[in-house]
Every structure is written in C-alpha cells, then in structure tokens.
Design brief:
The protein is an all-alpha fold. The chain has six helices and no strands. The chain starts with 6 loop residues before the first helix and ends in an 11-residue tail after the last helix.
C-alpha cells in the first residue's frame, strides 16, 4: 500500500519539526562563519610568513610537465614546487572564504526560519541555552584537536604548523565567546 503525503500535510508538520531544532541551523551557520574567519586569519598568516606556513607541499614533489605548465600560468615568477605550494595555500584560504560566505547565507536563512515557528520566551531561552552549550562543546573540541595537530606538525616538520595553530586559535576564540552566553539559571525557589 502506497501512502501519499500532500504538501499541505507536510507544511502543517514542518514547523513542529523545525521548532525544537532551530539551534542546530544556527550552529551550522556560525560554524561556517568560523571557518570563514579562519580563512581570513590564514590569509594574514600567509602574507606574513609565506605560503609554506599554510601548505606543507614537499619541495621535492615530482610534478608532471603539464601540471608545472598549468601552475606557471597562475604563478609565473615561482618554481614549479613553489607554485604548487602557493596554489595549495590559495585553495586553503579561498575554500574557507567560500564557507564563510555560505555561513552568512545560512545565518540569514536561520533568521528567516526563526520567525516562522513563533517561539514563546521559555522556548527561546531553551534554544539559546542548547545552542550555547553545543557551540562551547564543539568549538572547544575543535580547538583542542587543531592545536594538538599543530603541535604534532611543529614537532615533525614545522611546515604548515601556523595554519593549524591559527585554526585552533579561531576555534578557541569562538568557544570563549560562546562561553559568555551560558548563564547560570537563577530561580526564586530553592
């Protein structure tokens, strides 16, 4: 037996599905924005320390002549290996900027969605609390992992370690900023 679900039936239940989970859309948007901020920070690191601080491509990598010719179009003043490192560093920054822009779009979508299912004050506070707890946990875990990877890379070759430290610092900053959102619940009754 086949069941058909009309659009009207789905539309009636969509707000019921969205209402308790709006904080997840906010977390997704802010996470993508954090990646965009990381891209901006990595861009500064690349300007200050060079492409090798972002990309750990081997100088001894053997690239095909066609690949070297392709890279020479974009990075004419560099050797083939240096052009490969510069290309990889540019990708790191560009993809993160794209994620940040997607995060801004997602945040705008979240703000529009938040208006649809009217939340009362208690639901709004609960959503904010869930979001803050999830954000602190996620960004703290990300910071610990990224800083740990950075330390490992630093002990190994040192190449691209600044990228990992930059990412870890951005995650730690977002974790601390969200920690301020967590307020102890005060109640009149004990």
């Amino acid at each position: 037996m086949t069941r058909y679900v009309s659009r009207a039936a789905f539309a009636l239940h969509l707000p019921d599905l969205l209402r308790p989970n709006l904080y997840l859309a906010r977390m997704l948007a802010v996470g993508l924005i954090a990646i965009g901020v990381s891209g901006a920070a990595c861009q500064v690191v690349g300007w200050r320390l060079g492409d090798h601080a972002l990309a750990a491509d081997s100088e001894s990598a053997h690239l095909s002549a066609a690949r070297c010719a392709d890279l020479a179009e974009y990075y004419p003043a560099k050797t083939c290996a240096a052009a490969e490192t510069a290309h990889h560093a540019d990708e790191i920054v560009t993809y993160r900027f794209a994620a940040g822009i997607l995060g801004i779009v997602a945040l705008a979508g979240y703000l529009l969605l938040r208006r649809q299912p009217r939340l009362d004050d208690e639901e709004r506070r609960e959503q904010a609390r869930r979001y803050a707890l999830l954000a602190v946990a996620a960004f703290s875990l990300a910071a610990a992992l990224l800083l740990g990877i950075g330390a490992g890379v630093m002990l190994d070759s040192g190449d691209a370690a600044p990228r990992w430290f930059t990412d870890g610092a951005v995650a730690a900053t977002f974790a601390l900023a969200h920690l301020a959102l967590i307020r102890p619940r005060t109640s009149g009754a004990r």
